[in-house]
């Protein structure tokens, strides 16, 4: 009966009844392609289905289409690029800067591009989380490019304010960018500030190819709001926008298809200009330094309390205005990581936010900054603890409680520590106070951190640039000590001399060290293998550690000495005088009885 009704419905061309009998839903607007040309709408509507201007096919039309095979629907993969970006040196990759007004999702898109949560992301409509330029290598399909995360632009900011300084910094980095992604919040619609940012881009970045991305469109992809938003985005004058969601990853395939031909044209132009896309120098340098760990890239973290000059120190070391500086306390929020060369050595600098005591009352970006600063301390090789020389001169102590915590945590984690006393230019006129600070700081550091002797202290003025070379030389010297490796033969010769000059209470209770060896570097770790029952006491370990630092000149870094006992081999005494026959017992068993039969051999 049902089959007869179905045939009758198909003969009368009733597609709705046929669809109901087949238990198949009517096609939605998302499953049907738009017409190639629309009379009353712009060509932009072809990117955003779901508007009233689209003409959809009926079930009868769909019935004439070829039947798709059963199974899970497979997503259409991205087209692969004709250019292999993975073999291109990072310095030659195309550079994309993310711009827009505050709180449109630039940092969230930056994190999605680099596939890590490095930039702070927090919903603060009335505040600016990002204040500095953050740089990273982005991965989008098989594309590789450098991406810059900038601060939110506000053209109405007063001169000299934080917003005005961030806008100037963004304008400075536009000179080394070839492309720009202009983000707008599609949920708020096109705001007047978006139009002002668009005018600012045309004025400062006329030679940069700009792409408009409508962010936060994950909740609007099934409605006709995107079509209206796309029409508004055309007022910016940068062509067709791309609907994306930095939080969920929606629209990344469309963004890939937009960026791929632009990047390919850019790389082909570089190739035609004679620039080599490979980086043989870096590969040769890596192979040459594989055996010497001290020549590997150095990770340097600049930490300290707020407003002690950490960002000024980073700009001084880089010889450029890389991060935002000013008299305001807590100006840095993100931990900014940058790279530079010093004496043919690659150094990665990390400027962290001001280290504050965790009272549990931090909220918003301040709490995220504290957590991020602690993470960068764990990743660093050398920690540069910055102190305020002016505050030391006015106070009775050189280091406050948070600074002592930083120094102790760096030593406990096995990191090299360099103490930098900044703002010494403010004490130059008062010579007695200047000399007092220089004399008091090393003594107090040795008192606060007694387990490590000889921690280097450098006095400088980051604002004037004095002491920049001294800081880097001390950092590299500490890093080379931190990567030191000593041979076992050299250590055992040293051990015999050290054990002979050590005063033991009783020779019978003297620990017997069979041999002494280094098992790892970064930091140097040594193992004393003991052959007797007597173990090294804490006093003996401190004596060995002190002797290592003095005899091999590796002071100022944490050194670890552990001990292990060598198990004795069990010896079996055999009676060689017994020459008679040996009696072996052979066991014969079954399920019920056990019989022993002696045999003579």
From TrEMBL:
Gene Ontology terms: biological process: ribosome biogenesis
Single annotated GO MF: GTP binding
Domain G residue range list: 95-216, 300-423
Pfam family for this entry, one: KH_dom-like
InterPro entries (alphabetical): GTP-bd, GTPase_Der, KH_dom-like, KH_dom-like_a/b, P-loop_NTPase, Small_GTP-bd
Residues covered by region (Disordered): 273-294
Keywords assigned by UniProt, alphabetized: GTP-binding, Nucleotide-binding, Repeat, Ribosome biogenesis
GTPase Der C-terminal KH-domain-like domain residues: 485-564
Domain of life: Eukaryota
Family membership noted in the UniProt record: Belongs to the TRAFAC class TrmE-Era-EngA-EngB-Septin-like GTPase superfamily. EngA (Der) GTPase family.
Name of the featured protein: GTPase Der
